[in-house]
């Protein structure tokens, strides 16, 4: 029976011990004489040597004596214990640390996700990172918004398009709400990725060049808006009401899958006409 709350110190101790004990010394070129090994797996001193820490430190961690290893130590232990990605992430969570790559946003679409974006046709779909950089899109999304291939990569950012691009600035009927929701997401992303200098520079650029952004940013709203409805004023198809869904893949949590669906029959017909051209 499990307790109602997780004692992360004890769980960290148990996790390190069980992962050490499941390792085969032969995989490390270590002796396997039974008389010399009274417990399965690697010895604590062997793990300490592999991780570059003291034996006493490993002992205290496995005894749950309240240590909080640094991110560098957690990474070294993960390598020494040959943890798979999910186990490594679990170890970082137990230690209350962020993995080194947490501050590095995706700059390219994961190939399976890029394929999924294409397969979602005829629904408009695109893939973004936490900065709202657009990493992949299908032809329907390009037809609905604009041809992203015509933009330099630095401008393929949905907030930049909403604030700066002449075609998309007036695209949304309720523009302030769309901008407000986008800013609330960026503020949450800013707190979650404090090392992301590109995001910091992007926010500074928007604040300095757009009064509306500066005003709304100063209000301090924080929200990850993953579902809703947008009314678009399309220059060719007229008004289109779209439902949107934002999904976060488990294996690529820094990438956001955005899918649009028509909210009513008139909007469905408008999309059909637009995509048929």
Automatic annotation (TrEMBL):
It comes from the Bacteria. InterPro entries: Cro/C1-type_HTH, Lambda_DNA-bd_dom_sf, MLTR_LBD. Residues 34-91 form the HTH cro/C1-type domain. Gene3D superfamilies: 3.30.450.180, lambda repressor-like DNA-binding domains. Pfam families: HTH_31 (PF13560), MLTR_LBD (PF17765). Signal peptide: none annotated. This is Helix-turn-helix transcriptional regulator. It comes from Streptomyces silvae.
